[in-house]
Design goal:
The chain is of the alpha/beta class. It is about 50% helix and about 20% strand. It has 2 domains: about 140 residues, Response regulator (Rossmann fold); about 180 residues, Reverse transcriptase/Diguanylate cyclase domain (Alpha-Beta Plaits). Bound molecules: guanosine-5'-triphosphate.
Length: about 325
């Protein structure tokens, strides 16, 4: 529930074409302790003001020359499309009350003002509005949590799969390729066993930061398991565009780590799969990259390996221009 202070600090806009009415409402709100109140006598400014300030409450006169309150509400509805229209209509016309509610106002206040009614309706409406905002924020946080790994704050497997799908669709539209790099730290179990799980957690967080730091903004870096990460690259022309990023990732992971006064070194292995060469679906791409990772582990770790079809495509390209590409399938760091 919003606190009394939060209610008194809520952002309120008074809209009335009559200066006396504006002054009266400002006085009522000031006396009630509201601290964040502004007013306008220009109804055609309301939407722009709301876009800028995102008011918690708009006290809106219905009868105004030029744009009336109903027209203003129509504009506000476009701003608050899936939300809550924070309008409290002010009207001297009994017949306008229901029309105002039907037009989207949450409540109304009759003119001339009955002070007790004004206070109660404004308070109640702000309480609901702020509660609505709290709920919206809570739900956003929950969604974030459902899509991110709590230790590193990186996207989790669920979000990763969405990102791969988007990247693949983008590649299809632009007749480009996409690369999925499956990364698994080498000998991480030994770090946990020697220094403890909490120490291992610190290393994982540092690794995550380094992976993000050495990737492009548009790439996705996700954590998909204990010491397993996946990096997705879009706008790729072939294996040649993934080789350098993979080598760079191997290099940054191998920089020394300083945790709790201890200096530690670590390496990583990476499997690379390309869309569409190695697989056409999200699941198959991850699987192909995972298989290539297995090859890299078997070949001695601390290196990257590419899946067969992208390797063959790169080899064919290298054969066409032999001096450009010598070793296309694997790279030992
Ligand atoms: N600290 C920490 N450890 C984790 C977490 N999740 C999984 N692990 C541990 O990470 C280790 C991963 O095991 P492996 O990848 O099989 O071990 P490895 O020593 O890296 O083996 P190779 O990949 O073959 O080099 C296991 O010891 C898990 O217990 C976590 O959230 N925090």
């Amino acid at each position: 529930m919003p606190s009394p202070d939060e209610i008194l600090n809520a952002k309120i806009l008074v809209v009335d074409d009559c200066a006396d009415n504006v002054d009266l409402m400002l006085e009522i709100l000031r006396e009630a302790g509201y601290t964040n109140v502004t007013a306008t006598m220009l109804p055609d400014q309301v939407c722009a003001l709301h876009r800028q300030h995102n008011y918690d409450l708009i006290l809106l006169d219905l009868q105004m020359p030029g744009l009336n309150g109903f027209q203003v509400m129509k504009g506000l509805k476009e701003i608050e499309q899936d939300g809550y229209l924070p309008v409290l209509a002010l009207t001297a016309q009994p017949s306008f009350k229901i029309a105002a509610l039907e037009a989207g106002a949450r409540d109304f206040i009759s003119k001339p003002f009955d002070l007790l009614e004004v206070h109660k309706r404004i308070h109640n409406m702000l309480e609901v509005r702020l509660l609505y905002k709290e709920l919206a924020q809570y739900s956003k946080r929950q969604q974030e949590l459902a899509l991110h790994d709590p230790l590193t704050n990186l996207p989790n497997r669920r979000l990763l799969e969405d990102r791969i799908e988007t990247t693949v669709q983008h590649a299809l539209r632009n007749q480009r390729k996409a690369a999925v790099m499956y990364l698994d730290l080498d000998g991480f179990k030994g770090i946990n066993d020697t220094h403890g799980h909490a120490y291992g957690d610190e290393i994982l967080k540092l690794v995550a930061q380094r992976l993000v730091g050495s990737s492009r903004k548009e790439d996705t870096v996700a954590r998909v398991g204990g010491d397993e990460f996946v990096i997705v690259l879009g706008d790729v022309g072939g294996l040649h565009d993934a080789r350098e990023p993979a080598s760079k990732l191997i290099e940054v992971v191998s920089e020394p780590y300083q945790v709790n006064g201890l200096t530690l070194r670590l390496s990583t292995s990476i499997g690379i799969a390309l869309f569409p060469d190695d697989a056409g679906s999200v699941g198959d791409l991850i699987h192909a990259a995972d298989n290539a990772l297995y090859d890299a582990k078997r070949a001695g770790k601390n290196r990257w390996c590419a899946a067969p079809a992208s390797t063959a495509a790169a080899a064919a390209a290298a054969a066409a221009v032999p001096h450009q590409l010598k070793s296309v399938a694997t790279s030992a760091a």
